[in-house]
Design a protein that fits this description.
- This protein is an alpha+beta fold.
- The protein is built from 21 helices and 29 strands.
- It folds into three domains: about 170 residues, 2-Layer Sandwich (Aldehyde Oxidoreductase, domain 4), CATH 3.30.365; about 150 residues, Aldehyde oxidase/xanthine dehydrogenase, molybdopterin binding domain (Aldehyde Oxidoreductase, domain 4), CATH 3.30.365; about 300 residues, 2-Layer Sandwich (Aldehyde Oxidoreductase, domain 4).
- Strands 12-13-10-20-17-18-19 form a seven-stranded mixed beta sheet, with helices on both faces. Strands 15-23-22-21-16 form a five-stranded mixed beta sheet, sandwiched between helices.
- The two termini are about 45 Å apart.
């Protein structure tokens, strides 16, 4: 039996209940909900404060602002008037796309669109009903405006706070939110979290201060999966400010009064390691292993239209190419951290995590306690990109707290984050295709060799999807993750298995290659590598057919209008039909991911033997747009994030050790290297879809295609280099 990724995630069951967590500027605390709370996303208190419960974590992508706009639209208030609260681990905040509480997959807007508008519409009508009852006037004579209910005939006004208690006792009508004539939705709106962040009152994980908490630094094996044989803490304990040195699952924790004390003592610790099976792992040798796997006949056919293999066998000429993409780090600006307090049969956690329920379930399993005894206080996140779906740093904090019998904050350094995190898997692609006499592709056979993300993460996700008592279902789905799901892992071939181009024959093979390196979702997941291969190869086909790359794509997308819209838009805006400036090459790419359609056209120049991207034009069709400024910001973010990986970044291993350690050798794009960025939105009335990730996949192929247009050289490995 096999399941799609979405089908598997939807196997979980959502239940209600739980506490509402409120945050002070210092320490979060649990409190019973007070005031008028017509839904899990909204609470109005008698002091006339409207609380917005942010159900998806805010990690810089604009989720809080988007949800504020949706709620404010129906509640007739300004988004800036809402007070933000971050949702705790609670089934009421499950992501309906995944059936558990997680922020990822560019689903925040799509999964907030109906619930937050409905919450605002329901609250508005209940407040108006309360005013009608108070004044004994017809409903038709009352309106809501600026946080109050007005009765224009008598010029009476009641603020929402004054009506909150009575509104809570009113019956709930069926209210449909408006679908047009929006006042807030679709308008550029300032970030509602900007003031909190500028003033320093937004509580990030590193800001948490629990009274009496120590700070811990872990010394981990330099090889992933290695374990402690023995350690000598004599020199470390001689240093001041050190309270404990304890062994935990992933290494040795040095606990001090401050980070300075713990970090200094950790450097003095002597540890003997059992480096485990990855002690000789080498990324260059692994590249060859992947290529050998691609060139063999192993793997699983995951997509089959017609008979591509036979068609290629009969073709007069076949074009083929191989593409390679390295391991990549997430490298969020806030390194990993978590604060935990294990006491009296319960656990309290403060953490910047993308999956509060995943954290709670894993902690409960680690300590063998009921999940209901684990409270996760969500903090603001200093970046995520998928890294904070993994809960390793949370589990470390819990282990150390249990060992020392008190609260503790585990803090990772930048070097820890670079060398001990799960990574975007390295991927290799082999593509073969044939063209007919008119230069149109007939058959396409695509093989992808990489690690299975689902195999890596499913055992940790399943418990968060299901009520804790369903042990049998948990084991069943977990075992499927180890077997059939992993062999057909859709996250490894997404984008290839849904090629939009008109093809008679298409075959896609997934070839799992499992070296044991820890891996995790990375911004745009499988699309981050599949689009590089597919859009680079389409360009190669266009060249072989002696056709313009834009016109070649456009001709194959006549039945795919949303792909074609964004492709045509970037071509128009970059001036594709006019000659490029002297010494400049242009490239183009289009790709659908997370139900959104994105395209990029770029201009590059070669300076001193290096590739310099001078201009990037991007377009997206993500259906209805809640905030165009946030959409454009996310496209710009994707461009810079994507260019960093395209031109600079890679994680390499030698003797099992990660060779990169910080931003000097895993460099992001610098300010003086950032090209001119132009972003455009192709709006329509379709349901809103993803924004945070879809802009990234088109960057690398567009740049590689531009380099070919300028130099005649095909670069098929990232990061791109002319050497």
């Amino acid at each position: 039996m096999t399941l799609s990724r979405r089908g598997l995630l939807q196997a979980g069951l959502a239940v209600g209940g739980g506490l509402l967590v409120e945050f002070s500027p210092q320490v979060a605390h649990a409190a019973a909900p007070t005031g008028f709370m017509p839904s899990a996303f909204l609470r109005i208190t008698p002091d006339d404060v409207i609380h917005l419960i942010v159900s998806r974590v805010e990690m810089g992508q604009g989720t809080a602002t988007m949800q504020a706009q949706l709620l404010a639209e129906e509640l007739e208030v300004a988004p800036s008037s809402l007070q933000l609260e971050l949702a705790p681990n609670d089934r009421r905040y499950d992501n309906p796309e995944m059936s558990f509480q997680l922020t990822g997959g560019s689903t925040s807007t799509a999964t907030s669109w109906d619930p937050y508008r409905q919450a605002g519409a329901l609250a508005r009508e209940l407040l108006i009903s309360a005013a009608v009852k108070t004044w004994r006037v017809p409903r038709a004579e009352c309106v809501a405006k600026d946080g109050a209910v007005l009765h224009p005939p008598t010029q009476r006004t009641l603020r929402y706070g004054a009506l909150a208690e009575l509104a809570a006792s009113q019956s709930a009508p069926h209210v449909a939110p408006r679908e047009k004539d929006f006042k807030v939705i679709g308008k550029p709106t300032p970030r509602v979290d900007a003031h909190l962040k500028v003033t320093g009152t937004a509580q990030f994980g590193l800001d948490v201060q629990v009274p009496g908490a120590k700070v811990a630094v872990l010394v981990r094996c330099p090889v992933p999966g290695g374990t402690v044989k023995s350690f000598d803490d004599a020199e470390a304990k001689k240093l001041g400010g050190v309270s404990h040195v304890v062994a935990v699952s992933r290494g040795v924790a040095v606990v001090g009064e401050t980070y300075f004390h713990a970090h200094r003592a950790a450097q003095a610790l002597k540890v003997e390691w059992d480096e485990g099976p990855l002690s000789n792992f080498d990324s260059v040798a692994f590249h060859q292993v992947q290529l050998d796997a691609l060139r063999g006949d192993g793997g699983r056919r995951v997509k089959n239209v017609g008979d591509a293999v036979d068609a290629l066998r009969r073709a007069g000429s076949v074009l083929e190419a191989e593409y390679f993409l390295p391991y990549l780090a997430h490298a969020p600006m806030e390194p990993q951290n978590a604060t935990a307090w294990v006491r009296d049969g319960s656990v309290e956690i403060w953490a910047p995590t993308q999956g509060p329920m995943v954290a709670a379930e894993q902690v409960a399993r680690l300590l063998d306690v009921p999940q209901s005894s684990v409270t996760v206080h969500q903090t603001w996140l200093g970046g995520g990109f998928g890294r904070r779906i993994a809960q390793d740093y949370v589990l470390e904090a819990v282990e150390v707290s249990k060992a020392i019998g008190g609260p503790v904050k585990v803090v990772w350094s930048r070097e820890d984050d670079m060398r001990h995190s799960p990574y975007r898997p390295a991927a290799a692609h082999r593509v073969r295709a044939s063209l007919d006499a008119a230069g149109k592709p007939v058959a396409w056979h695509h093989r992808v060799a990489t690690q299975s993300l689902l195999k890596a993460i499913l055992p940790d996700f399943v418990g968060a999807m299901l009520p804790s008592g369903l042990h049998f279902m948990r084991r069943l789905i977990a075992s499927m993750g180890e077997g059939a799901i992993a062999e057909r892992d859709p996250t490894s071939v997404e984008g290839v298995d849904s090629l939009p181009y008109a093809l008679t024959h298409l075959a896609v093979d997934f070839v799992p290659v499992e070296p044991g390196v820890p891996v995790m979702f990375w911004r745009s997941v499988g699309h981050s590598h599949t689009a590089f291969a597919t859009e680079s190869f389409v360009d190669e086909l266009a060249h072989a057919a002696k056709q313009d790359p834009f016109e070649f794509r456009r001709g194959l997308l006549m039945a795919q209008h949303r792909h074609r819209w964004v492709l045509e838009l970037v071509a128009e805006k970059i001036g594709w039909t006019t000659p490029a400036p002297e010494g400049v090459g242009r490239g183009i790419a289009v790709h659908k991911s997370f139900e959104s359609y994105a395209a990029a056209a770029v201009e590059v120049r070669i300076k001193d033997g290096a590739i310099v991207v001078e201009r990037v034009v991007m377009a997206i069709d993500c259906g209805r747009v809640v905030n165009p400024d946030i959409v454009k910001a996310q496209l710009e973010s994707a461009a810079i994030f994507g260019l960093s990986a395209t031109l600079k970044q890679r994680i390499t291993f030698e003797k099992g050790r990660v060779m990169q350690s910080n931003f000097h050798d895993y460099a992001p794009l610098r300010l003086d290297e950032t090209p001119r960025l132009e972003t455009f939105i192709r709006e329509n009335d379709a349901a809103p879809t993803g924004v945070g990730e879809p802009g990234l996949p088109v960057i690398a192929p567009a740049v590689a295609n531009a380099v070919f247009a300028l130099t005649g050289k095909r670069l098929r490995s990232l990061p791109l280099s002319l050497e």
